[in-house]
Amino acid sequence: MTVERTGAVSADLGADVESMVVAAFRDVLGDGEPVDAGSDFFDLGGNSILGARLVARLRQVLEVKVTIRDLFRARTAGVLAGAVRQRMAARGQGRDADGQGRGAAAGPRHRTAEV
Fold first, then answer.
1. Could you identify which of 10, 94, 109, 111 might form a hypothetical disulfide with 2, taking C-beta atoms 3.0 to 4.6 angstroms apart as the criterion?
2. How many domains does the chain fold into?
3. Is 34 helix (H, G, I), strand (E, B) or coil?
4. Is the dihedral of CA 8, 12, 17, 18 positive or negative?
């Protein structure tokens, strides 16, 4: 997978992200069960501790914000990969993880109190 510094993602992102999520499921869960796009993380023996490891691995490999909440909402490798692709596309369009714009029109993120 190729991710440019500008946030633009290569055309082959879809298959790459899914295969990377499947590989991360395998790495975190071990070699016990076969894993594919339809595999449910928790049905394969995943738990919150392993979920935290999975999220950390995906953040490192894909360089995108993935949360434990994402995993609980998108329990299968394929659905989680779809959520990650959406997040990457939003980042490429100058949006944050919640789809909100980050430009000047969006206003300041943090306000400081005047003394």
1. 10
2. 1
3. coil
4. positive
The candidate with the shortest Cα–Cα distance to 37, out of 90, 91, 75, 73, is 75
Structure tokens at 85: 């692709």
CATH number at residue 52: 1.10.1200.10
CA gap 59, 43 in Å, rounded: 22
Query: pLDDT in tens for each of the 115 residues of the chain?
Result: 333 333 444 445 567 999 999 999 999 999 777 999 999 999 999 999 999 999 999 999 999 999 999 999 999 999 999 999 999 998 886 655 555 554 444 433 444 455 4
Dist. CA 6–CA 14, nearest whole Å: 18
State the pTM of this model: 0.69
In terms of residue numbers, what domain contains 86?
A: 13-93
